[in-house]
């Protein structure tokens, strides 16, 4: 099929006047068009980031909604209809928050000078706790975010961002595995993180003490975390089932 398409394309170009072909694919013109398009996309991306950052301030009151985006736009001096630059709607606000939170983890560690003195599991706990506390200002509205992430059209990005988060946590914790441990550790941590996050949405204790107690128990359940693959095989099966059930509870079809 590919060869057929190439042949057809070659035959078509032979039938067209050379001057038309040359002008159509002039490298300078093509480069200029791409340059202008990239510049436009960069400018639009910057505007979207400004809007999303401003809109996060309104999430505690309005939730992960178009209303929050509209208020964010107005706070920038834009018309409320400017929220339309986020074409996928409120889910872009959720994904922006998750992406920026993951990116901020390494910066947050600067205020934890004892981090490198901790053992692996303690480092993981510290990093998960830091990330969970980033969600705390929005925790009352987080079930709404989970519902958006669970929609079929949003599921691929949801799974991708979860994978990026657990990978970043393991990287910052000093993981250097290059064998099957790389996968097992991240799958186990995905189960720990998502189950703790879900628990947090129902936690009414002071300073989320019950959530962190729950995190301790989950890390205890996967106490083999960081050991060899032969020692984690049973826990991997358990962790996989946990990830699957949690993703299903969000309406997401697990990718494994």
What does this entry look like structurally?
This protein starts with a helix and ends in a 7-residue tail after the last helix. Helix content is 70%, strand content 0%. It is built from 12 helices and no strands. The N terminus and C terminus are likely disordered. By secondary structure, it is mainly alpha-helical. It is globular, with a radius of gyration of 24 Å.
For this entry, give a set of tags.
256 residues, mainly alpha, disordered C terminus, disordered N terminus, single chain
Which stretches are poorly predicted, pLDDT < 50 over at least 5 residues?
Answer: 1-28, 30-41, 226-244, 250-256
Helix/strand class:
mainly alpha
State mean pLDDT (0 to 100 scale). 79
Number of helices: 12
Order of helices and strands: HHHHHHHHHHHH
| Biggest sheet character | none
Radius of gyration: 24 Å
* Shape type: globular
Please give the share of residues in helix. 55-70%
- DSSP strand tally: 0
The fraction of residues in strands falls at under 5%
Distance between the termini: 31 Å
């Amino acid at each position: 099929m590919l060869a057929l398409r190439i042949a057809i394309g070659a035959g078509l170009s032979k039938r067209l006047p050379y001057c038309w072909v040359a002008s159509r694919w002039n490298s300078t013109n093509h480069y200029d068009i791409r340059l202008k398009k990239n510049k436009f996309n960069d400018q639009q991306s910057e505007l979207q980031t400004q809007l999303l950052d401003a809109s996060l301030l309104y999430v505690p009151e309005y939730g992960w909604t178009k209303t929050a985006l509209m208020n964010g736009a107005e706070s920038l001096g834009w018309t409320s209809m400017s929220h339309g630059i986020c074409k996928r709607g409120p889910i872009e606000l959720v994904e922006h928050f998750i992406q920026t939170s993951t990116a901020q983890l390494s910066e947050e560690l600067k205020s934890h000078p004892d981090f490198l003195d901790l053992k692996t599991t303690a480092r993981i706990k510290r990093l998960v706790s830091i990330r969970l506390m980033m969600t705390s200002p929005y925790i009352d509205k987080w079930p709404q975010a989970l519902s958006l992430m669970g929609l079929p059209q949003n599921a691929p990005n949801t799974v991708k961002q979860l994978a990026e988060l657990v990978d970043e946590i393991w990287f910052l914790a000093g993981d250097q595995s290059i064998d099957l441990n790389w996968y097992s550790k991240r799958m186990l941590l995905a189960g720990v993180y998502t189950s703790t996050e879900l628990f947090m949405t129902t936690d009414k204790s002071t300073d989320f003490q019950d959530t962190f107690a729950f995190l301790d128990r989950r890390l205890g359940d996967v106490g083999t975390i960081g050991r060899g693959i032969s020692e984690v095989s049973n826990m991997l099966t358990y962790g996989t089932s946990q990830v699957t059930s949690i993703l299903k509870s969000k309406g997401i079809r697990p990718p494994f």
